[in-house]
Amino acid sequence: MRSYATEFIGTFFLVLTIGCTVLAGAALAPVAIGAVLMVMVYAGGHVSGAHYNPAVTLAVLLRGRIAPRDAVAYWIAQLLAGILAALTAQYVVNPTTVAELSPAGRTIGAALVAEALFTFALAYVVLSVATSKDHPVNSFYGLAIGFTVAAGAFAVGGVSGAAFNPAVAVGAATMGLFAWSKLWIWIVADLAGGAVAAGAFLALNPGDRAPLETSAV
Q1: What is the mean pLDDT of residues 183-204?
Q2: Is residue 75 within 8 Å of residue 60, measured between CB atoms?
Q3: What does the H/E/C string look like for the chain?
Q4: For the chain, how big is the Rg over CA atoms in Å?
Q5: Do 195 and 119 form a contact (C-beta atoms < 8 A)?
Q6: Between residues 165 and 212, which one has the greater pLDDT?
Q7: CA separation, residue 135 to residues 36, 80, 132, 174 (Å)
Q8: How far apart are the C-alpha atoms of 86 and 173, rounded to whole Å?
Q9: Over 60: is that where the pLDDT of 212 sits?
Q10: CB 32 within 8 A of CB 142
Q11: How far apart are CA 31 and CA 125, in angstroms?
Q12: Which end of the chain is more exposed for a tag (fewer CB within 10 A), N or C?
C-alpha cells in the first residue's frame, strides 16, 4: 500500500501541475512540469519506483522489475490520481474557456508519432538510469527523467499536447484539454512507446535481464 499511495501522490502532483499551468496559460509550463516530476521522482523513487505513468509501469513490467499484480494496482492508482488532480486544477484555476485538442487528418499521425517517440524516450531513460545494474545507486535519475519530459513538452507540445503518459491524457480529457473521442491516440501511442522502450533496453543490455534486488526506481 505504501507503493500504491506513493504512485497516487506523485501522479496527482504531476497532473495537477500540468493542469494548473496549462489552464492558466503559463509560458514556462514545460519547466514547471519537468521540475515537479523531478522532485516527485526523488521523493518517491525509494518507495514505489516513482513511475507516475502507466506507460512507464508497462515498460518496467516488460523489463521484469515489477509483478503483474502490482502493475495493475499502479495503473489504478495513477489513473485515479490523474482524474482527481484534473478536477482539482479546474477548481483552482477556474478558466473561462478551455481549448480542446482534437487531432484530425494528418495531425492524428503526427500526434501518434510525437507521443510514441517521446514516451519511448521517457521510458527508455527511466529504465536506463533507474533500473540498470550499471547505475544501482545514483543521484541523477530524477534530473534525467524530469528533463526528458520538459524537453518533450517544448519540442512537441504544440503537436500532441505532450502527454507521454496515459494518466496525464485521461486527466487532460477530464479538464477538457483533450477530446475524449480522440483519447485513443494518447493511450495507444504512449503504451506502444513504453513497450518498445522495454524491448530496446533489453536488446541493448542483454546482461541486465534478470530482476535486480535493489534499484533507484
Answers
A1: 97
A2: no
A3: CHHHHHHHHHHHHHHHHHHHHHHCCCCCHHHHHHHHHHHHHHHHCCCCCCCCCHHHHHHHHHHCCCCHHHHHHHHHHHHHHHHHHHHHHHHHHCCCCCCCECCCCHHHHHHHHHHHHHHHHHHHHHHHHHCCCCCCCCCCHHHHHHHHHHHHHHHHHHHHCCCCCHHHHHHHHHCCCECHHHHHHHHHHHHHHHHHHHHHHHHHCHHHCCCCCCCCC
A4: 16
A5: no
A6: 165
A7: 23, 32, 5, 38
A8: 9
A9: no
A10: no
A11: 18
A12: N
Q: Take residue 72 and report the three cell numbers written for it.
A: 495493475
**Maximal CA-CA distance, the chain:** 54
CB 81 within 8 A of CB 12: yes
C-alpha 38/C-alpha 19 separation (Å) is 17
Show Cβ contacts of residue 53 under 8 Å, excluding neighbours closer than 6 positions. Answer: 11, 78, 122, 164, 165, 166, 167, 168, 194
pLDDT tens digit string along 14-53? Answer: 999 999 999 999 999 999 999 999 999 999 999 999 999 9
Residues forming beta bridges with residue 178, ordered by sequence position: 101
Answering whether pTM is above 0.90, one says: yes
CA angle 154, 82, 33 (to 5 degrees): 25
d(CA 43, CA 97): 34
